């Protein structure tokens, strides 16, 4: 049993270790993206005043190019992000354009996010990343089992003593058991966001899975075609009345005729950085069609909403982000050295001693 587990651990690691290494490294970088974007006004304090947000929204949504929506400034990033069908822009909280791009390749934080979440291939990439996440979960569990046999030889090393296969294997084994709790947290929360069935298994202890799944599904509202000049000020005013202490997070225009305009907000007690408290407005008239209070959702749904902030370091401040950085860098190191030893430092088969020919006598 142990021999089979060891073989699976090595072979799957050799095949998928490089992908896990890249996901770990990109995740460690993305955890701090608000700090390294480095654009003017990026460090501005959040201004949640209704009048200011409404005026800026009207100004930005009237820009040429048919904006698709706004990701509003947050406490860690003082810029609004305007999305277009192709490209986008950053704007200050007063509505001044700070940076514009026609392709995601012009903004490192955007293409890096696309790689980490979709591997540049949309839904297919999510499936691949999800499978990689399940493999990583297998590595953590099987690695802990395999480590237990050799626990008496444990030594802490950030880097192998030598770049020989035995030294790398020892470092891999002992570093892996140290960072296993952090890796487990990163892997479980990341896989939950990619594979809904896995997420439902993880939130089952918190309440009814069927109620949670129903709560997470967006309601189906039908309205008229998008008005030429939607009254965003009235929508934001209605939203502030519904959720007085909430931050404005994402305004999204309908993707097809009849769909509503949606506005996501984040209440103070929510961990999810973009919130899950949502309002839907008729795109033609601006009339409120319905709203959802994230804090009143089923317990399982609220547990699911915690996965992303835990995975991306959106709670806990700098100490927690540094812990996730350690997790990502450790995965990058473990994955890359696994591939190196598997493909380039494999043990040579032992040479069998030549049998002496028997003397034949007549």
From TrEMBL:
Keywords: Membrane, Transmembrane, Transmembrane helix. This is Peptidase. The keyword Membrane applies. Coiled coil: none annotated. The chain crosses the membrane at residues 12-31, 127-148, 175-195, 322-343. The keyword Transmembrane helix applies. InterPro entries: PepSY-ass_TM.
């Amino acid at each position: 049993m142990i021999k089979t587990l060891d073989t699976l651990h090595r072979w799957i690691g050799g095949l998928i270790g490089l992908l896990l290494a890249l996901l770990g490294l990109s995740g460690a970088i993305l955890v701090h993206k608000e700090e390294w974007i480095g654009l003017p006004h990026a460090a501005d304090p959040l201004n949640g005043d209704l009048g200011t947000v409404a005026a800026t929204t009207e100004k930005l949504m009237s820009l040429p190019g048919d904006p698709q929506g706004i990701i509003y400034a947050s406490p860690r990033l003082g810029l609004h992000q305007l999305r277009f069908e192709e490209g986008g822009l950053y704007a200050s909280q007063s509505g001044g354009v700070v940076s514009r791009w026609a392709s995601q390749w012009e903004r490192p934080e955007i293409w890096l996010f696309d790689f980490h979440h979709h591997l540049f291939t949309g839904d297919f990439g999510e499936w691949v990343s999800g499978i990689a996440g399940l493999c990583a979960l297998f590595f953590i569990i099987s690695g802990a089992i395999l480590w237990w046999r050799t626990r008496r030889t444990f030594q802490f090393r950030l880097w192998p003593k030598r770049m020989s296969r035995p030294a790398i294997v020892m470092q891999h084994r002992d570093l892996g058991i140290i960072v296993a709790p952090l890796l487990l947290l990163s892997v479980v929360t990341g896989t939950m966001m990619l594979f809904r069935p896995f997420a439902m298994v993880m939130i089952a202890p918190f309440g009814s899975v069927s109620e949670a799944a129903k709560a997470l599904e967006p309601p189906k509202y039908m309205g008229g075609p998008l008005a030429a000049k939607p009254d965003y000020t009235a929508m934001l005013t209605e939203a502030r009345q519904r959720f007085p202490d909430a931050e404005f997070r994402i305004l999204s225009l309908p993707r097809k005729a009849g769909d509503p305009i949606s506005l996501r907000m984040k209440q103070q007690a929510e961990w999810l950085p973009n919130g899950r408290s949502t309002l839907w407005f008729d795109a033609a008239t601006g009339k409120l069609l319905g709203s959802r209070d994230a804090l009143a959702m089923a317990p399982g749904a609220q547990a699911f909403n915690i996965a992303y902030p835990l995975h991306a370091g959106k709670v806990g401040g700098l100490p927690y982000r540094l812990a996730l950085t350690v997790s990502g860098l450790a995965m990058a190191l473990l994955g890359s050295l696994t591939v190196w030893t598997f493909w380039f430092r494999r043990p040579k088969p032992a040479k069998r001693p030549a049998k002496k020919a028997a003397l034949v006598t007549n």
